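Person: At home tonight, work slowly through the protein below, taking as long as you need, and write a paragraph about the fold.
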Amino acid sequence: MTRLRTFVERYFEFDALGARWRTEILAGFTTFITMAYIVFVNPAILADAGMPVRAVTAATCLSAAIGSLAMGILARYPIALAPGMGLNAYFTYTVVKGMGVPWETALGAVFLSGVAFFLLTAAGIRQLIVSAIPHELYAAVAVGIGLFIALIGFRGAGIVAPSAATMVTMGNLRDPNTLLSLFGLLLISGLMARGVRAAMLIGVLVTAGVGAAVGLVQLSPRLYGFGEISATAFRLDIAGALHIGLLEIVFVFLFVDLFDNIGTLVAVGKKAALFDRAHRIPRLNRVLYSDAAATVAGALAGTSTVVSYIESAAGVVAGGRTGIPAIVTGILFGAAVFLAPVLGAIPAAATSPALIVVGALMISHAAEIDWKNPALAIPAFLTITSIPLTFSIANGLAFGFTSYTLVRLLRGEWRAINWLVYLLTLLFLARFAWLGQG
C-alpha cells in the first residue's frame, strides 16, 4: 500500500506541486458540486431536440466521467469535462430545431468534430494554436472568464436579472432563493477570509442544507441507471453527417469547441500555475487528446460536445494542483447517474455563490497586464469585457486576437507577430463574417 501511494504521488508530482491528498480530494468534490448542475440542465436542453431525458442523463454522467478521468489520469491536470453549455443549445435550437436535422445526424456531426480534434492534435495544429496565443493575453482571458463565471453566478443567484431597458438590472432581493444565495456568498467569503481551505465546499453544502430546512429543495424519488443510456447510445448517424450540406455544422462544433477549450485551458492554467517560464503548458498533447476522446465518447453515448469546464477553477481555488481533483470529479460523475435525485437537491442558489467567489479571485490576474501600453491594454480590455458581455469565451478570444494583431500592425511590428497569429486572426474575422454572432 505504501509503495502504491509513493508511486501515485510521484506520478502526480505531489512534492513539486506541494500537493496534499486531503486538499486534492476536497478540490475534486468542490469542482463536482460546482458543475453538477449539468446533470440536469443538459438533458433538459437536449430534450427539446426530441432526445429521451433519462438516456441523455446517463450519457451526460458517463461522458463527463470518461473525460474527467482521462484528463486526470493521462494529462494529470485538475480540469474536469462535461457536455458544454452553449454547444448543447446550438445542437438543439440551431441544428435540430432550426435546420430540421435529426438528432441522430447531429450526434454524427459531434462525433466527426471529435475525430477532427484527434487529427488536428496529432498533426500538432492545436498545440501550435495554444502556443501562438500571446502570453500578454493569458491574463486577460483569465480575468474575462472570471467575470463570465461571476455573471453566471449572479444570474443563477437572482441578484442580476434581465431588463428590456438596460439589458441587466438588480434582481428581486426579497426572493427566498436570492436571500439563500446571499447567505451562501457571505458564508463562503467569511470562511475564505479566515483561511478555511474547504470554504467553497462547506459553503455550498451548508447553503444547500439551509435550503432544505426552509423548504427550497425538492427531492425526486426515482433513480437513474446506466441501462437508460440504450435509447441514445450508438444511435448517431455518421453517414448522414458527412453530407456536404452538414459539414458546416461539423465546422461550427469544431471551431467553437476548439477556442472555448483554449480559453478555459488558459484561464484554469493561469490559476493553477500550470504554465512554465516560457508560457507553455507541459503535457499539452495529453490535455488535447483527453478533450477529443471525451467528445467522441459523448457522441457515442448520446450527448452533445464535451468540453473543459471553467468551473474547474473552483477546484483550483480550493487548492487542487494535480490530476486527482479531475479523477475525483470523474468518479463522482460516474456515481451521479444513480444519485441524480440527491444531486438535484443542490439548488443553483447554493452553487451560484461559489461561482461569484471564483470570479472575484480570478480578477487578480488583471495586475499582470501592462495597462500603460496601449498595444497590450486595448486588446486585453476588449478580451476581458467581450467574454461576459457576449456570453462567449470564443468571442473574447476573437476580439483579443484580432485587436492584438491589428494594433501591432499599426505600430509597424508586423515582423514580430507569429505567423499562426495572423492565420488565427483571419479565421476569427471569417468567423465574425460567416456566423454573424457567437
Observations:
- The beta strands are 81-83, 160-163, 167-170, 306-308.
